[in-house]
Structures are given as C-alpha cells and as structure tokens.
C-alpha cells in the first residue's frame, strides 16, 4: 500500500466516523483517528493499518458517547 492510498483510506475513515458519531465534535473524531494512526507509525506492514485505525478510533469514540 502506498502512502497516498493509506492517506485516502484514513480520510474515508474520518468521514465515516464523523457521520457515525454526530454527537462527538469533528475535532474529537479527528483526534481519535490521528491518535490511532500514530499508534501504528513505524510498522513495516501497512496493508491493515486503515482497518485497525478505524477499529481503534471507533472504540475510543464509543466510550466517549457512553460516558
């Protein structure tokens, strides 16, 4: 996966999560996605990073909504 492809998929993740969590500010959603993405920085195999980022960010955002 190229960096451009990964960035595009992360952008799509941001869009999906913003729509899924309308009660959470766009900044909080972006922060959750950026934090999850940073967690995988430096890992050599990038193919599943967008999926893992979405899962990690979704879990964090879900906890914000239920709190």
Automatic annotation (TrEMBL):
Gene3D superfamilies: Corynebacterium glutamicum thioredoxin-dependent arsenate reductase, N-terminal domain (1.10.8.1060). This is Three-helix bundle dimerization domain-containing protein. NCBIfam families: MSMEG_6209_Nter.
């Amino acid at each position: 996966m190229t960096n451009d492809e990964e960035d595009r998929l992360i952008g799509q993740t941001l869009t999906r999560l913003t729509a899924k969590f309308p009660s959470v500010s766009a900044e909080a959603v972006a922060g959750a996605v950026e934090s999850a993405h940073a967690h995988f920085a430096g890992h050599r195999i990038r193919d599943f990073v967008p999926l893992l980022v979405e899962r990690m960010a979704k879990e964090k955002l879900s906890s914000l909504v239920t709190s």
